Amino acid sequence: MQQNLKNIGWKRIVIKVGSALIAPHRDGCSSQYLLSIANFIVRCRASGIQVVLVSSGSVAAGAHLFNNVDNSSMTVKKAMAAAGQSEMMATWDRLFDFNTAQVLLTHADLRNRDRFESVRDTLTALLQNDILPIVNENDTVTTDKLKVGDNDNLSAMVASAAYADALIICSDIDGLYTANPHEDKSATLIPDVMRIDPEIYAMAGGATSDVGTGGMKTKVQAAEKAVSHGINTYIVNGFSEATFNTLLQGGNPGTLFHAIETPMQDQSHWMKHTTKAQGELVVEDTFAMQKQSDDLITPQDLVNVIGDFSAGEVVLLRKENGDKLAKVKSNYSSCLLNFVAEQDNDDLSEKLHDSAAPILSEQYVSLSN
Ligand SMILES: Nc1ncnc2c1ncn2[C@@H]1O[C@H](COP(=O)(O)OP(=O)(O)O)[C@@H](O)[C@H]1O
Ligand SMILES: N[C@@H](CCC(=O)OP(=O)(O)O)C(=O)O
């Protein structure tokens, strides 16, 4: 049956496929579950819907090549990822008769605005030329400081970079349940989530399989990122062909997190949901942010500087009592700001203002209500 998929209202979608679907037995890649996903992608593209694929599975795919090794070692995992990535790409390639492109990213590529926009441009150019981008984290080169860490959050960052209309997270389970059904047999599926609040997070546990990373918790985090960019987000069971038939008919086969009605502006969204604060600027509990002023804070406001960061990096502005005020780009390094915070000199404020840029750039996103 041929449907007009344009009726679904999607122009561009991101599909994220979990490791359990690619290398279910940690014994190399299997196309067993990928066929129906590939068929879905083919049908979307044939209807004029642009698709970006975020594929996990490099570690799980490469694992069988390593014997008698410590599977928990990060170095071994990075080597598995390097070996498994080419097998994973080759497996997807066999399922398509159009071109694919490998896009490997780390968080460092996304938390810098110029690089984020460069990723956006590359994805757009690939899609305009009918090439299917296949994105994964570049596990082989990441460190704790550089990585996103899970492909759920990565797929949401990619979906916002791509200005997608929908994010479809294909997992090994039907969607978000009231509790992990592997641990609580009375758990029930939640079909619709209109608002992601602490109650939703409390239901979402970690991964319980050998191959998954993050479990439902990182999927809810991803959904929160995506819906605030105006992207409807589905968590669906990728093992079942019926899932994709339902999606093609405009239905919801799992859990649908509904996009918020008034999405955040793109730059503020990026600052809140894609950047990571590289340090903290601490101000007194009585501090009130002058949002309309050129100087969000003055040297006298600064009580403490935490962490090492360079000029131009994003930091968290917070009160001594822990209340978060804003995520904001610092015009100065932590080294210089530590010096500023230690000074007991009112003149410094004026000097800094007259001779250089304010401490914080005008690029910020408020975190206070
Ligand atoms: N509330 C919940 N509802 C559904 N699954 C949950 C829940 N809490 C934890 N999980 C776990 O999350 C797993 C899916 O995440 P994960 O293993 O990371 O898969 P993937 O490889 O698809 O990312 C489920 O198999 C289940 O064990
Ligand atoms: N980047 C890793 C996947 C990380 C990840 O989030 O895995 P999963 O929970 O299966 O989506 C890999 O390719 O093995």
Comma- or semicolon-separated keywords:
369 residues; 8-stranded mixed sheet; 13 strands; single chain; 5-stranded mixed sheet; alpha/beta; 35% helix; binds adenosine-5'-diphosphate; binds ligand VHF
List the helices and strands and how they pair.
Elements lengths: L11 E6 L1 H4 L11 H13 L3 E6 L2 H5 L11 H22 L4 E6 L1 H5 L1 H16 L3 E6 L13 H11 L4 E6 L20 E2 L4 H6 L11 H13 L4 E6 L3 H8 L6 E3 L8 H8 L6 E4 L18 E5 L7 E6 L4 E7 L3 H9 L3 H10 L4 E7 L3
Parallel strand pairs: 1-2, 1-5, 2-4, 3-4, 5-7, 6-8, 9-11
Antiparallel strand pairs: 7-8, 9-10, 11-12, 12-13
Bound molecules: adenosine-5'-diphosphate and ligand VHF.
Adenosine-5'-diphosphate binds next to α1 and α9.
